[in-house]
């Protein structure tokens, strides 16, 4: 992972892609009844006690990601920022956000669960 990236640009691109994908999903299918949550998970490539690991974690935190419950990965819930409860809409946004993070070299995945 390249820790010398423009974190603000990456975060903005990630959130914009997520929002556009979620809005496109709503436009195509409407608000579906299935409620749930979606988020992006990023697994750091370096150990947290190394210089590279600390730099990597600073980058993730600067982009708005926070440690998950395991303390080993970082998450961003509802990256599209839409106030919908529709799980498929949130999944579209999380998938787009994960794709942007992958282009920047992160190990990212989109996840979801029903409410």
Describe the protein:
The chain has one domain. Helix content is 45%, strand content 19%. It has helices at residues 7-29, 51-62, 87-103; strands at residues 36-43, 66-67, 74-77, 107-114. It has a four-stranded antiparallel beta sheet, with helices on one face. Strand 2 and strand 3 (74-77) form a beta hairpin. The longest helix has 23 residues, at 7-29. The radius of gyration is 14 Å and the shape is elongated.
Keywords:
single chain; 115 residues; alpha+beta; four-stranded antiparallel β-sheet; 3 helices; 19% strand
Short description:
This protein is α+β, with helices and mostly antiparallel strands and 115 residues long. The protein has three helices and four strands; from the N terminus they run αβαββαβ. The chain has one domain.
Q: What is the overall silhouette?
A: elongated
SSE topology string? HEHEEHE
How many beta strands in the DSSP annotation?
4
Oligomer state of the chains in this structure: single chain
Rg, nearest Å:
14 Å
- What's the tally of helices? 3
Q: What fraction strand?
A: 15-25%
Architecture blueprint of SSEs:
Blueprint: H1 7-29, E1 36-43, H2 51-62, E2 66-67, E3 74-77, H3 87-103, E4 107-114
Antiparallel strand pairs: 1-3, 1-4, 2-3
């Amino acid at each position: 992972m390249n820790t010398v990236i423009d974190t603000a640009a990456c975060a903005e691109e990630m959130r914009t892609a997520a929002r556009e994908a979620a809005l496109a999903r709503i436009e195509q299918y409407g608000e579906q009844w299935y409620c749930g949550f979606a988020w992006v998970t990023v697994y750091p490539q370096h150990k947290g006690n190394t210089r590279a690991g600390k730099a990597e974690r600073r980058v993730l935190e600067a982009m708005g990601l926070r440690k998950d419950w395991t303390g080993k990965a970082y998450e961003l819930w509802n990256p599209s920022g839409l106030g919908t409860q529709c799980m498929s809409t949130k999944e579209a946004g999380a998938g787009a956000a994960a794709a942007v993070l992958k282009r920047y070299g992160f190990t990212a995945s989109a996840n979801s669960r029903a409410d």
